[in-house]
């Protein structure tokens, strides 16, 4: 009982100590959205094979090619921005004013 109370207390302490600048960010303001997404993921993993057992495999080749291309473009853009701003990933003062 004490372990669950300590865990619950430490979780809510970390939620209360959040950075207020991240409040408008999605999935950051509260642990509820991430918990719901995790529950949905578990539901899909558990029920997906049951649903697909008598189905033909889906043809996702075009969708996956588009996804991979978009991820390559996003990674290239992020690399370009980091190099353009001459940011060092090892800089300890990254993001300070």
- Series of H and E elements: HHH
State which percent range the strand residues make up.
under 5%
Kindly state the number of beta strands: 0
Distance from first to last alpha carbon? 44 Å
Class from secondary-structure proportions: mainly alpha
What is the overall number of helices?
A: 3
Q: Summarize the main sheet.
A: none
Return residue spans where pLDDT drops below 50 for at least 5 consecutive residues: none
EC number: 2.3.1.199
Organism: Cairina moschata
Family: Belongs to the ELO family.
Keywords: Fatty acid biosynthesis, Fatty acid metabolism, Lipid biosynthesis, Lipid metabolism, Membrane, Transferase, Transmembrane, Transmembrane helix
Task: Looking at this protein, list some descriptive labels.
transmembrane, mainly alpha, 97 residues, lipid metabolism, single chain, flat, ELO_fam, transmembrane helix
Question: Your description of this structure?
Answer:
One of its GO terms (molecular function) is fatty acid elongase activity. This is Elongation of very long chain fatty acids protein. Helices cover 63% and strands 0% of the residues. 0% of the residues are buried. The longest helix is centred in the C-terminal third of the chain and has 24 residues, at 61-84. It has 3 helices and no strands. The protein has 97 residues and is mainly alpha-helical. The protein is flat, with a radius of gyration of 21 Å. Among the domains are: 26-55; 58-87.
Give a brief outline of the structure:
The protein is 63% helix and 0% strand. It is built from three helices and no strands.
